[in-house]
Amino acid sequence: MRFAPGWGKHQGMKARIHITLKNGVLDPQGKATEHALGGLGFGGINDVRQGKYIELDLTESDPVKARATVEAMCQKLLANTVIENYEIDLDE
Amino acid sequence: MKAAVIVSPGSNCDRDVQVALRQSAGSDPIMHWHGDANLPDVDLIVVPGGFSYGDYLRAGALAAQSPVIREVVARANKGVPVLGICNGFQILTECGLLPGVLMRNAGLKFICRDVDLRVEAADTVFTRDYVNGQIIRIPVAHNEGNYFADDETLNRLDGENRVAFRYCSPEGEVTPAANPNGAARNIAGILNEGRNVLGMMPHPERLADAMLGGTDGRPMFDGLIEALATAA
Which domains does chain A have, with CATH numbers? Predict the structure, then answer.
């Protein structure tokens, strides 16, 4: 039995977004975590910064369009660019 | 004078604001659901405190996208006074009416207590019943009240006298020890360029009735009602 090309294949793509605090923005959660790690005996940590990870399952299959849309989502809602940076990875 | 209080899922200071406005105005404000973009014509809009949308993503970020907030932005740009308290302040920064952002408290703890504030800009419809340099005591209750903006923005706010309130000692000194949450330059409340939008972390509505232990918040509501009654 033969299947049409693309049969059963997911048509869209995944966007993986990492949102991190900009350099110089104080991260009290990261600092508290760093402190706790030190308390557990884990040495050798210069700094801990905490961020967010967001995964989107998109119906769009054109990577250029998908990236532009996700970029707009980050600008408008997903990140607050006053204090946060974002990085978008697209998986086809 | 007609006022509207915006109610989002998770608002919890909306009724306190309603009571404070009723007490000062003698009439009830409209309690307006966030999903309804048809905001009636009003002379004052209050975005109250609470935990709109459970503070998901970032405090105020999701409420800032709700249908009525687009209308609130349009009205504010036409000069209608908008007061954002606590979560309301967070929403006003997230929707772009006010600069900067409210970050997690520097001490990582939710802070709920009375704080002293120095009135820095008594020339607005919100603060006209206070005087510059006056020290008032009202509560804060927040987890994200740590005001942050870049130096250029902070200098601009200072230069244009747009800091309405600063955290201070009981004697009125603006010191790091008097800063409950790490806010830049002890900022507790700021104004927009037109001075018709005020965002503040402390809650004037929670101390507007002597029965609750203080009335330092009441002049804000009295002043608004007076100012807007004469304007109308």
Answer: 13-91 (3.30.1280.10)
